[in-house]
Amino acid sequence: MKKILAIHTGGTISMSQNDQGKVVPNAKNPIAQEETILAGRVQLITDEMFNLPSPHMTPVEMLKIKQRIDQAEKDGIDGVVITHGTDTLEETAYFLDLTLPNTIPVVVTGAMRSSNEVGTDGLYNFRSAIEVAADDASRGNGAMVVMNDEIHTARYVTKTHTTNVATFRTPTFGPIGIVAKDHAVYFQKLINQDTCDIDHVIDHVYLIKAYAGMDGSLFDFLDNDQTAGVVIEGLGAGNLPPQTLPAIQRLLDRQIPLVLVSRCYNGVAEDIYDYQGGGIELRKMGLMLCQGLNGQKARIKLLVGLSAGLQGDDLKQFLSTAVS
Ligand code: ASP
């Protein structure tokens, strides 16, 4: 029988609606009491690590989850399921994807409707995630997100809707599989897996979104000794308004790593345009283009790379290999 570790961290999947119709955390996580789910086929080991709404989640907790999984692997666990609030689920999932050795299946899940609401999806998603974590076909796919009968890579999945149960989508590439009645069915595979083990996380890595008419003010706020790195969600294929350039140059002069992704939902950042603030100039200035990741994922990757002590060309190489 497969031994699966269920790590509970909080989120809507652990919450309930109260008499006033407000969704609130519970002192006791209802999903963590479901220890006999798939009894006879899977032995479930439960760890209630946190009870946090996911906007309260930080890289410090993400690292603790990674270390708990490292320990479980040494203890001979066959797979791991993490229940998590959906707001920042993709960031924790991608953090685990980058920092774990990709030997056993690691599946992150959550819910859009709390435990006592009509049509609650928590228990169903939890069961699906356990099925996927216990399936031999799930090995080698990196960390995965299982919600609403779909299997997505942690690397590319993103939350796309505030309330719909079909909120998790993978732009450009699509899901890699589906959850059938009692097993996983895969129809795509990631070609390339970047992993980077870390034992601490650094702070002061920021994410800024570009907009029409943007100037350098937001970048100037980051022009200080503390700033460790900045990800910029650029316009279109990866362009910025020209008024931002002097402030961006000041950050580069301070040797602050700057990463450029696109704010578009689909596609990848590329240096196509040769006008002031176009991708060609931005790359020449020293911005690192990161292809395929959204802003929040690129921020996690930059944070992990910097926490591992990567710099210069090594950091650039690490950040540029998102696609495939
Ligand atoms: N706000 C909730 C959270 O992320 C949303 C959810 O879990 O679906 O904790």
UniProtKB/TrEMBL annotation:
SUPFAM superfamilies: Glutaminase/Asparaginase. Residues 3-189 form the L-asparaginase N-terminal domain. Substrate binds at residues 54, 86-87. Signal peptide: none annotated. It comes from the Bacteria. The active site is at 12 (o-isoaspartyl threonine intermediate), 86. It holds the Pfam family Asparaginase. GO terms for molecular function: asparaginase activity. Belongs to the asparaginase 1 family. Residues 204-317 form the Asparaginase/glutaminase C-terminal domain. The keyword Hydrolase applies. The keyword Manganese does not apply. GO terms for biological process: asparagine metabolic process. The lineage of its organism: Bacteria, Bacillati, Bacillota, Bacilli, Lactobacillales. Keywords: Hydrolase. CDD domains: L-asparaginase_II (cd08964). This is Asparaginase. It comes from Levilactobacillus koreensis.
